[in-house]
Design goal:
heterodimer, A: alpha/beta, B: seven-stranded mixed sheet, three-stranded antiparallel sheet, cytoplasm (chain B), protein biosynthesis (chain B), NagB/RpiA_transferase-like (chain B), IF-2B-related (chain B)
Chain lengths: ~650, ~375
């Protein structure tokens, strides 16, 4: 609608709008309410009409005929206008649909995998629902303003805060919240001006007023308008604050995701806070690596089990498993579970089922916690020790070893050989964008005094032209068909080594062995945030620029465009000063956008429909590239992985 | 090597003016201010044109020597800017051909082919015919102006050829990709690749997906710009990190690489690190690799020592500034050598060739005598 008004001349603008709004009433009745110059124009029109009538009468037409003609004309115009409106509406809908399609970016190759955005949306939705309603905070994932809707907690407290750093009162973008459909009747835009004091949203408006104390009443009105605007636009999931950027919102288009979120929300009371913390750590890649993730999870499980109370009517051995399942469901939302985590969970569930129902809860819980500790020690610490002992026999004096990325076992192995065994080894750490895990590894080794060389995966050719003796690799998991599932880039390294007849050794705890089989890296993988690849300082590419603010930036941008839209819609109703303010603001916005655009070339890649960024985390190394796998059971060829899985199934 | 080597021979004003231009160009090359083999080739040709118009010589061999000296000087300034030496050699070949023709026309009985390499084995045991010098003296006054004209015409032709190289390549290359194919290019800085992809999309109306590797750390900017340009031309584009190449290779239909120089053995130097790994991956997956190269990128050199041809950059692009006591060694490879066994086909503006056939194309355009510009003629 606003577009059509903008197109038509400014003089007829308001009259057209009114005509559209009140189709039944005549034009003359409309004219009375007009501003003075508009009235004048209307009068002139009427005069002209009278003149025309006089002319026609002189030509020999009766007044009735004239009136009939005029009526017909009016009707014709009306129908034309309606048609146009319909057309515009259609266009608008189409564009909106298009936008929806576009913003849910899925690359052609990896459409079957869950994107980070989807995961993030879920996490954001969950945490905002679970965490306390009184605080709003900025997390790494974006701005989070918790909204507790009545559907969940019964209260209709609504918090909002101003976000934009700009000081001007109009610029304070209100953090609009989706009112729960049960309590807040959607506020129609027409009633907004008076809604500040009436309607059920008194509570909300006062809350907003407290928050944005500096802003005037009209801003509050705008805030409310934006609330209702959004309420109409988005599918409402109770408890989700709408400060999630629209890109994330649109991830909720898929019904399966919505249902899974709803399911999680239903059980949200069951979720232990330490699990929540772990989830957020995992989601933000604060804890990385399959072993550290597994250890962290086991530690949290110990806490969870300690705090666990068996509800009446069931036994611990029956109920704890399902209770843990709820926790695991949440953990899964952070990132797909690592193989180590999956194996540990399977073991734990088995342990729980083995508990004699007659044992008292306290003893059972204590027993379980001890067992978890023992498991971690046996499967990880002692296993690592055995692996290091075994692998150390491979490393002679003055060997050159190439490794990739960062691995806990490998770092320990290399340190052990260089420091404790005093072997004169040279380590080449190969690294890649965007994670740069190798930097950490290189730093650890260098700080301990090991002879380290650092190179990027693009210089593989040079590295293997040097005198390389061994390639040592860490693993995320080894699949049952012998494929090594590890950080993206590992396969390339192994392949290059194989082609040059350099032995490739993999150090891997048996906890990482998986029953799964997989043939290539595309079918199952984990997608990391594509924005990690967007941020780069081209002049100084080594400095990592986090994309922590990416979502916030996006959110602010979205807010701005929404505000612009809102301003445009308000223009015909509001006074002229308001529109002037708007135009000034627009100027400011465009200049700001200009600033941010020249930072990264790929900024705003979401807007280009045919541009995609793929940031896969893992790849699959075929077994023929691997000379041997060193586990705590000894060194074996990759083809023996299923043997180990079968033989030691009971213990793993 | 300095301009003094030239100035005593040609003390007049015109040559000193040229010498200044040469010196500035040498300085630009040394500072790596001219980027890209295309720009370098064109600028070298412009310089050569000025140089030849200002040059003075008594015999055409003197002119050849002067051009060789200039070429040597430019090569020394930027040893890995191969296109610079290539175009100089091309012009030398044009001159030598002309000399041959003139000598052939002046001597009635000359039927031998002067190039023993291309000639068949039947005349291997024949005594190579000495170039007849006697006829030269009579015709030298007549032909002196001719040679300048010939050289300058050769330069003009070469400039034309270089400027229109993409046309020829596109026509052949488009036939090599099919609809809905997934292509991967590890050389996003290649303008030839970019133009080829865009014309394939727009003129031939093929739909295909292009994977662009990032080429971190030296080429990421180019890669991002490249991806954006492709996407703006409505080509499905995926930016992938360098590490994900192996993971995605199983889905890739063809790998397209741009080249910086193509050697007689069929190997190539690409202007981006990581290309050799990509091509190796492609070989492992039996994915065809085709290289696009203008004829001027063909170099008569043989990469006996690859390390000599690969360029290395500063460490500031691979490692952040760190504690000086805890320094690390690092490598920053800027260019990459792709061996001929990892390339399936070369698409040049004169046709598609197997890497093993490249030497033949090279000797069509160069003369054996000019391979090493720094060696004085014996």
């Amino acid at each position: 609608m606003s577009e059509s008004e903008a197109k038509s001349g400014p003089t007829t603008l308001s009259s057209k709008a009114k005509q559209a709004a009140t189709a039944a009433t005549g034009a003359a009745a409309n004219g009375e309410k007009k501003l003075t110059n508009k009235e004048l124009k209307e009068l002139k029109k009427q005069e002209k009409a009278a003149k025309r009538a006089a002319m026609k009468q002189a030509n020999g037409m009766s007044i009735e005929q004239q009136q009939q003609q005029a009526q017909m004309k009016k009707e014709k115009k009306q129908s034309q206008r309606e048609q146009q409106q319909k057309r515009e509406q259609k266009l608008k809908n189409a564009s909106k649909k298009k936008q929806n399609e576009r913003s849910v970016k899925k690359s052609t190759l990896f459409g079957h995998l869950e994107t980070t955005e989807e995961r993030r949306a879920t996490i954001l939705a969950l945490t905002s629902a679970v965490s306390s309603p009184k605080t709003s905070r900025i997390t790494a994932a974006g701005l989070m303003i918790p909204v507790v809707a009545s559907a969940l907690s019964g209260s209709n407290v609504l918090t909002a805060s101003s976000l934009t750093p700009m000081g001007s009162s109009t610029a304070s973008a209100p953090a609009a919240a989706v009112p729960a459909s049960a309590t807040a009747p959607t506020i129609a835009p027409s009633t907004v001006l008076s809604a500040a004091s009436t309607s059920t949203s008194t509570n909300t408006s006062t809350a907003i007023q407290q928050e944005i104390s500096s802003s005037s009443a009209s801003d509050v009105a705008k805030t409310l308008a934006s609330i209702s605007l959004e309420a109409g636009e988005f599918s409402v999931i109770p408890g989700i604050s709408s400060v999630i950027p629209t890109v994330l919102e649109q991830s909720f288009d898929s019904s399966s995701l919505v249902s899974s979120v709803k399911e999680l929300l239903l059980n949200k009371d069951l979720i232990h806070p330490s699990i929540l913390l772990l989830t957020s750590h995992l989601a933000h890649y604060k804890i990385v690596g399959s072993i550290p993730r597994c250890i962290a999870m086991l530690e949290v499980f110990q806490i969870v089990i300690k705090d666990y109370q068996t509800p009446k009517g069931t036994t611990l051995s029956r109920n704890l498993t399902s209770y843990l399942s709820h926790q695991i469901d949440l953990l899964k939302k952070a990132r797909p579970l690592s193989v180590t985590m999956g194996n540990a969970i399977r073991w734990l569930k088995q342990e729980i089922s083995l508990i004699d129902p007659s044992t008292p809860d306290k003893a059972a819980k204590k027993d379980l916690c001890e067992k978890i500790g023992q498991f971690a020690k046996e499967k990880i610490e002692l296993a690592d020790q055995l692996i290091i002992d075994n692998a150390s026999t491979q490393i002679e004096n003055s060997t050159t070893i190439v490794t990739y990325g960062s691995s806990k076992v490998l770092a320990e192995l290399l340190l052990h050989n260089a420091i404790s065994l005093r072997k004169d080894i040279k380590v080449i750490v190969v690294d890649s964008r965007p994670l740069f895990e190798g930097r950490k590894m290189a730093e650890t080794l260098r700080n301990a005094g090991v002879n380290v060389m650092y190179a990027l995966i693009t210089s593989l050719d040079t590295i293997f032209n040097m005198d390389v003796d061994y390639v040592f690799l860490g693993a995320h998991s080894i699949l049952s068909n012998g494929f090594l599932y590890s950080r993206a880039g590992t396969a390339m390294l192994a392949m290059t080594a194989k082609r040059r007849n350099i032995p490739v050794l993999v150090c891997c705890e048996s906890l990482k062995f998986s029953q799964r089989v997989q043939l290539d890296s595309v079918t199952f993988n984990e997608l990391a945030d594509p924005n990690d690849l967007v941020n780069i300082d081209y002049e100084n590419p080594v400095e990592r620029r986090g994309n922590k603010g990416a979502l916030l930036k996006q959110f602010i941008k979205e807010r701005r465009s929404e505000k612009k839209k809102l301003d445009l819609e308000n223009k015909p109703k509001g006074n002229k000063t308001g529109s002037k303010n708007g135009s000034v603001e627009e100027n400011k916005d465009t200049s700001n956008e200009g600033d941010s655009n020249d930072k990264n070339i790929l900024d705003g890649w979401q807007e280009l429909p045919s541009l995609n960024i793929v940031n896969v985390l893992y790849d699959l190394t075929p077994p023929e590239y691997i000379k041997k796998v060193i586990t705590e059971f000894g060194a074996l060829p990759p083809s023996s992985v299923p043997v180990i899985l079968r033989e030691y199934k009971g213990s793993a | 090597m300095s301009s003094q080597a030239f100035s005593p021979v040609h003390p007049n004003a015109a040559t000193s003016d040229v010498n200044i231009t040469i010196d500035t160009f040498v300085a630009k090359l040394k500072r790596r201010q001219v980027q890209g083999s295309y720009a370098i080739a064109l600028e070298t040709l412009q310089l050569l044109m000025r140089f030849i118009s200002a040059a003075r010589w008594n015999h055409v061999n003197e002119l050849i020597e002067q051009i060789r000296d200039l070429g040597n000087k430019l090569e020394k300034a930027h040893p890995t800017a191969f296109s610079c030496g290539n175009v100089v050699r091309r012009i030398l070949a044009v001159l030598r051909d002309e000399i041959e023709e003139v000598s052939m026309s002046t001597t009635v009985t000359s039927t031998t082919v002067a190039e023993p390499l291309i000639s068949s084995m039947f005349n291997l045991l024949q005594k190579p015919e000495q170039p007849h010098q006697n006829g030269k003296n009579s015709s030298s006054m007549r032909t002196k102006t001719d040679y300048r004209q010939v050289a300058i015409q050769g330069i003009k032709d070469l400039i034309d050829e270089i400027k229109n190289i993409d046309e020829g390549i596109q026509q052949i290359a488009i036939d090599l990709i099919h609809d809905h194919e997934i292509l991967l290019t590890p050389t996003p800085d290649s303008k030839t690749v970019l133009k080829f992809l865009i014309t394939a999309r727009e003129r031939s109306n093929r739909t295909f997906t292009v994977l662009v590797t990032e080429g971190f750390p030296n080429n990421t900017k180019n890669a991002h710009e490249f991806a954006k340009k492709l996407a703006q031309h409505n080509i499905e584009t995926l930016v992938v990190p360098d590490s994900a190449v192996f993971a995605l290779m199983s889905r890739v239909g063809k790998v397209i690489i741009g080249t910086k120089a193509v050697f007689v053995n069929g190997g190539t130097i690409s202007s981006n690190s990581g290309v050799s790994s990509v091509c190796e991956c492609a070989r492992e997956f039996r994915t065809p690799v085709f290289a696009v190269a203008g004829l001027y990128k063909l170099s008569p050199l043989y990469p006996f020592d690859v390390e000599k041809f690969v360029e290395f950059g500063g460490s500031q692009r691979t490692l952040p500034r760190m504690d000086p006591r805890k320094r690390l060694d690092t490598v920053n490879q800027i260019t990459d050598y792709v061996p001929p066994e990892n390339i399936d086909i070369y698409i040049t503006n004169v046709g598609g060739f197997n890497p093993s056939f490249i030497y033949r194309i090279a000797w069509d355009n160069y003369k054996q005598a000019d391979v090493h510009l720094d060696k004085k003629k014996v």
